Amino acid sequence: MHKNKGLFLIISSGILWGASGTSAQALLHNTHLSTYWLTGIRLLCAGSLLLAYYFLRTRQNIFAIWKDKNMARQLVLFAFFGMFPAQFTYFMAVNYGDAATATILQFLGPIFILLFLIFRWHRRPTRLDVVCVFFALLGTFLLVTKGHVSQLTLAPAAVFWGVMAGVSQASYTLLPDQLLKKFKAELVCGWAMILGGLPFIPLLVTSTPPSFTGRDWGQLAYIIIFGTAVAFLFYLSSLHYLKPTTTSMLSAFEPLTATILSILLLGTVFSWIQVIGGVLIIGVTFLQGWYAQKVMQMKE
């Protein structure tokens, strides 16, 4: 029963995140909205919603986390080296490319984690490590070139920001996890989002409000409420019922959703070569998750 709840939460979070990428693409491409404005309003509003939800549910002081200097320092690090760059680089990749490709390139994160651990701890890469890096690089090559060595089918800026989104996603797992052990996830993420949104406040205050249609405002509301606040809550809640290896594999519903919606609603075109490239990149996550789960079962 608990496992089924965990599966529902992680799959739902992936679908919500994927759909938010498609909504962001529609806003950025159709209204010429600033990526900075969208990132800032998303972080500040979603963070406020999470803190309000935490207070209404627990009736506890939302400022308690700041009374512990060590926890406060880790929160600031999480906000500016995890939350802020992950959200900003992803929207930049969507702005210069499309939601589907940006979300797939974001799945390069596990490879950067792997390379970091290899160089940080000076350990020799295993055969599986080599296979994962090879497939990830091959998948990226096919995705951005359609197999043609001499040309890019994506704007260089889209490739750059997509890869940076993967690096930023990797930073989540490299930060200390004491925060989530001591405080509720919604409190940590709420404050991290608000801190990450602070650099955008001068722009939000001085810029002219966008000329949105009712549909545009609806897409923005979806991105903030369901694509950010609810998606984060679902994902973090799933960790109470599922192993991290399982959640990492099932998070593939995010690029799957973004790709399907981009094709159906926004007219994004993918060649078979690009589809193969995307499958290879996402497959690396499944391969690493399967191996980690196997190792854990052997230890048990």
From TrEMBL:
<protein>
    <submittedName>
        <fullName>Drug/metabolite transporter permease</fullName>
    </submittedName>
</protein>
<dbReference type="GO" id="GO:0016020">
    <property type="term" value="C:membrane"/>
</dbReference>
<feature type="transmembrane region" description="Helical">
    <location>
        <begin position="130"/>
        <end position="149"/>
    </location>
</feature>
<feature type="transmembrane region" description="Helical">
    <location>
        <begin position="99"/>
        <end position="118"/>
    </location>
</feature>
<feature type="transmembrane region" description="Helical">
    <location>
        <begin position="75"/>
        <end position="93"/>
    </location>
</feature>
<keyword id="KW-0812">Transmembrane</keyword>
<keyword id="KW-1133">Transmembrane helix</keyword>
<dbReference type="Pfam" id="PF00892">
    <property type="entry name" value="EamA"/>
</dbReference>
<comment type="similarity">
    <text>Belongs to the EamA transporter family.</text>
</comment>
<dbReference type="InterPro" id="IPR000620">
    <property type="entry name" value="EamA_dom"/>
</dbReference>
<feature type="transmembrane region" description="Helical">
    <location>
        <begin position="217"/>
        <end position="236"/>
    </location>
</feature>
<keyword id="KW-0472">Membrane</keyword>
<feature type="transmembrane region" description="Helical">
    <location>
        <begin position="187"/>
        <end position="205"/>
    </location>
</feature>
<feature type="transmembrane region" description="Helical">
    <location>
        <begin position="34"/>
        <end position="55"/>
    </location>
</feature>
<feature type="transmembrane region" description="Helical">
    <location>
        <begin position="272"/>
        <end position="292"/>
    </location>
</feature>
<feature type="domain" description="EamA">
    <location>
        <begin position="5"/>
        <end position="144"/>
    </location>
</feature>
<feature type="transmembrane region" description="Helical">
    <location>
        <begin position="155"/>
        <end position="175"/>
    </location>
</feature>
<feature type="transmembrane region" description="Helical">
    <location>
        <begin position="248"/>
        <end position="266"/>
    </location>
</feature>
<feature type="domain" description="EamA">
    <location>
        <begin position="158"/>
        <end position="287"/>
    </location>
</feature>
<dbReference type="InterPro" id="IPR037185">
    <property type="entry name" value="EmrE-like"/>
</dbReference>
